[in-house]
């Protein structure tokens, strides 16, 4: 069957006007935030119901057409990139919040619900959805589940998988499965729900998700602290964790801060210039809790771990302090950064970061390195900025060499080559640094069960 005939048949499976083939749509929906692969999809399909998703998957099996899921396309691993004539299945029109259960504190969402939409819904109910990150205003719940999104609150609340009570999924065969049925306790064999969380659409598509909510935090307050060196950040973390439950603990380098301040959107937190900064957040639910935070800050200064600091005194100041961290990714995008999203256990972070920093500085002294990340849960973001005069392809080729050295260090420290952005295509060839051959073989065997014809987001995670 020719492509026009294929597309004509696809159009009968969804509502009129919900299959696009124009060049602008193919380009927009065929990519994510990565810039490594040129989008080249066959068409973009917009289902509005579970039945339409099933029909698309069965059609794809019949004609051996590959499918790529598309949410907010904010991913950083090329998991949502369609570069080889696939049909993109975009969930923009499956964007309803279907049900809310006040007693169970759960909300049933379609996959196209935007993260901030769920956060705002929870807030309206006096509750809280804690999975949060800079792209919350455009990322979608289906994509969050597909990549097991983390973000800035993991130290307290964990990853997306901690908040998924149940799923409805359409497998690669077109079957509809209802997984876990929103139960808290369920000891009836394999938890297939967890297989689909973080699977990047390679097993099937999430078509409905029941998400858990939590109580709303009280009087969130942030501290930004300047440290004399990286080794001081871990003692600061331990000092505060001994006294209170933190909702976030982030770090960024002086280079990251300088890029953000140069935008002119937010003021410097204080006058003292420091090589590294920590941003921590806690609930100042009582005056005593706030006083304890200040006392711990003073203790850290006495120990020489902190050179200067500031604590938010208002909601506006809280937001401004968070902008110092959250604006980093958007700000450095101007330099076409090559990103690595790696993790180790928390105690290994300082030595791990020093080794990677030394390797990159030794071999590529002209590359500017920007560090930031969720250091409280062992997750570091290494960003290598492209020199203005260097061609993009040459830059990415040099960074591929850096990757090997970086991932050898990750393997040495028994870490992960992708802490929260997924594997997709950008990390696919490096999976063996974090997973054994036996593990990868098991994952391939699992995929074959759910997707025997290999149509679900092929070429992602592994070949």
From TrEMBL:
Record keywords: FAD, Flavoprotein, Metal-binding, Oxidoreductase, Zinc
Substrates-to-products reaction catalysed: (R)-2-hydroxyglutarate + A = 2-oxoglutarate + AH2
Family to which the UniProt record says this protein belongs: Belongs to the FAD-binding oxidoreductase/transferase type 4 family.
Gene Ontology BP term (one): respiratory electron transport chain
Residues in coiled coil: none
EC number of the protein: 1.1.99.39
InterPro entries registered for this protein in UniProt: FAD-bd_oxidored_4_C, FAD-bd_PCMH, FAD-bd_PCMH-like_sf, FAD-bd_PCMH_sub1, FAD-bd_PCMH_sub2, FAD-linked_Oxase-like_C, FAD-oxidored/transferase_4, Oxid_FAD_bind_N
Classification via PANTHER family: D-2-HYDROXYGLUTARATE DEHYDROGENASE, MITOCHONDRIAL (PTHR43716:SF1)
Record SUPFAM superfamilies: FAD-binding/transporter-associated domain-like, FAD-linked oxidases, C-terminal domain
Identification of the protein by name: D-2-hydroxyglutarate dehydrogenase
Residue span(s) of domain FAD-binding PCMH-type: 37-216
Cofactor: FAD
GO MF term (any one): FAD binding
